Amino acid sequence: MAQIQVWRPALRLAPVLATRHVFVASLQAMFWAALLMALMAAWPARAFTLSDGADVQCQFSRENTSGTATERWSNYQSLSERDPELGKAVAVVRFDPQGWPTIVIDAVAYKQSKGVMAAMWDFIFFHECAHAKDPKLSEIGANCAAYIEMQDRGLMNAIRFKDIEAAHLRIMTLPEQYGGNGMEFWRMTLDCVERERRHDPGSPVRSAQSAR
Fold it and tell me: Based on the domain organization, do 95 and 179 belong to the same domain?
C-alpha cells in the first residue's frame, strides 16, 4: 500500500509539473526575446561614412513602413565568395517579402577604391538609398536624387563633379534603363537635376512619386 500511495500523487502531479515547465520555458523565451530586442535597439545600425567624415544611414518612409535600410557589406577572399546579389555592380538594393530594403555593398571594392573615388562612393550610396526609399524610381531618377542629395549636403563641387562625370563617361555600354552608355546616362542625369530644380512634374523623380 505504501508503494501505491507514493505512486498515485506522482501521477497526479506530472501534468502540473509539465505545464509548469512549459510555462517557465515560455517566460524564459519571452525574456531572451525582449533582451535581444533591447540590445538591438541600443546597438546602432552600421552607418556609411561619407567623404567628409559624416556617418549617414539610409532612412526611408513609404506607405505604412519606415525605418533604416539594412546595410550588408560583402567581404570575400575570392570572387567565388562574392555576394551573387551584386552581379557586376559594386552596390545594389534588394527588398525582402515585406518590402524592407537592404543595401548590399562590395566591401572589397570600397576598401580598394574609396581613397581615389571618395566622391563616387558618396554618389553610389545615395543612388542606392534613393532606390531603397522608392522602389519605383528609375535608374535616371536614382542618379538624379543622388546628385541633388550631394548638392544639398555641400558634397558637390567642381572637382567632385568632374570625378563623378569621368566615372560615368568611362562606361561604354549599359542596359537601356541606364541610357545605353555612360555618356547618355550622365546627360540624362543632369537633365533630370535641372528639371527637378525647376519643380518640373515630368522629371524622373517626380514621375515616380506621382505613380505611387
Answer: yes
